[in-house]
Design a protein that fits this description.
By secondary structure, this protein is of the alpha+beta class. Strand 3 and strand 4 form a beta hairpin. The structure holds flavin mononucleotide. Flavin mononucleotide binds next to helix 2 and strand 7.
């Protein structure tokens, strides 16, 4: 993180707008993104940051309309706002403000101050610690009240968290993930694209899914949620410890949905996703993410029909208790932030 540290705003030294921008982008880059593409860059001057989606980092095969790119940018937006709060600034955000440029995801300004609430500081403390999980979970139930809080928060962000409560609906979501994974593994274009974002061990790349972030062999859960094949046939990945191989619970299976399916909804979904991930992390709960079934149109429709309320599935998640050992990398903030005079 940059040199500024978050303190109560009354105690804050006066910092320049450029220092605030650097601090905010330092944090925002730790948002989750599909295949760790980090499909964003930042510009602005004075007390303003503009978050742009970076089309060159969009997955043209898996994500031709840019939905997952915008979800990733929505997660970066939430993180940037939280970083401003950690400095005691009130973030003023305008989402998709420029009709002429749909890649301008948000304009973020800071003018007024109020001390961060304790929960905001707690969420912020997880920004660099949270990791995507790929494997099973232990048997411990989630902290009481967590799911209700996550559901309420998602609605506040313009999304919804739908929890698969019975075995039948859990099995149906798992089957959609399994089918999507099978379809994608048989399609050479998907396989090539995934391989391009799955660097080999020892790579110095600061993007893509690190071999230190997935298990060397699949950990089966019940029902089973197959992970993406990041190692594509190589002997890559973290050794599976006996503790991890014993963690076979799928955890709480959920769908993140939005009432409509426009770019603004995708940004809302990303905003909701990052709030959910950080809130869960404060309770020792990690999430495994699956976007395969929403990348295949007909499978997405199957999931949608199961929801029965005309909403649009954006992501499948499993939530559970685990100890995280995954490593994740990011591009240096200086390479994604461009400030004018
Ligand atoms: C829109 C979106 C889709 C994702 N889809 C998957 C997925 O299908 N499988 C997976 O293992 N991780 C998925 N992820 C998690 C990313 O791979 C992860 O955020 C990225 O590698 C960075 O790692 P970190 O979250 O541990 O920091 C997704 C994340 C986002 C934001």
């Amino acid at each position: 993180m940059s040199a500024i540290t978050a303190e109560r705003c009354s105690e804050l030294p006066s910092v320049s707008a450029d220092e605030v921008a650097a601090y905010v982008v330092d944090a925002a880059v730790w948002a989750p993104s599909v295949h760790n593409t980090q499909p964003w860059w930042f510009s602005g001057r004075g007390a303003e940051i503009i978050l742009h989606a970076d089309r060159r980092r969009q997955l043209s095969v898996a994500d031709p309309v840019g939905r997952e790119m915008m979800i990733s940018c929505g997660a970066a937006l939430f993180t940037a706002k939280l970083a401003l709060r950690s400095l005691g600034y009130i973030a003023e955000a305008r989402v998709l403000p420029d009709h002429a440029d749909p890649l301008v995801v948000a304009r973020l300004r800071w003018r007024h101050r109020s001390p961060p609430a304790e929960y905001e500081s707690r969420l912020f403390s997880q920004v660099t610690r949270r990791r995507s999980h790929r494997g099973g979970f232990g048997p411990l139930p989630l902290v009481p009240g967590l799911l209700d809080a996550l559901r309420r928060d998602a609605i506040r962000d313009g999304a919804a968290l739908r929890i698969a409560t019975d075995d039948g609906s859990r099995a149906a979501v798992a089957a959609a993930v399994e089918m999507a994974e099978r379809v994608e593994r048989q399609d050479s274009m998907y396989v090539r694209e995934l391989a391009a974002w799955a660097p080999s061990p020892g790579s110095v790349r600061r993007d893509g899914v690190s071999p230190l972030s997935y298990p060397a062999r699949p950990v089966r859960t019940s029902p089973n949620f197959p992970s993406r094949d990041f190692a594509h046939g190589y002997d890559w990945g973290l050794p599976v410890s006996s503790a991890a191989s014993g963690a076979r619970f799928a955890g709480v299976v959920c769908l993140l949905t939005t009432p409509a399916d426009y770019p603004a909804d995708w940004v809302s979904a990303g905003h909701a996703l990052q709030r959910l991930l950080l809130t869960s992390a404060t309770c020792g709960v990690a999430a495994a993410l699956y976007s395969q079934p929403v990348e295949i149109d007909w499978l997405r429709e199957v999931l949608r029909a199961q929801l029965g309320d005309c909403s649009y599935p954006q992501l499948v998640l499993r939530l559970g208790s685990t100890v995280q050992s995954a490593v994740s990398v990011r591009r240096p903030p200086g390479s994604v932030l461009f400030r004018g005079e």
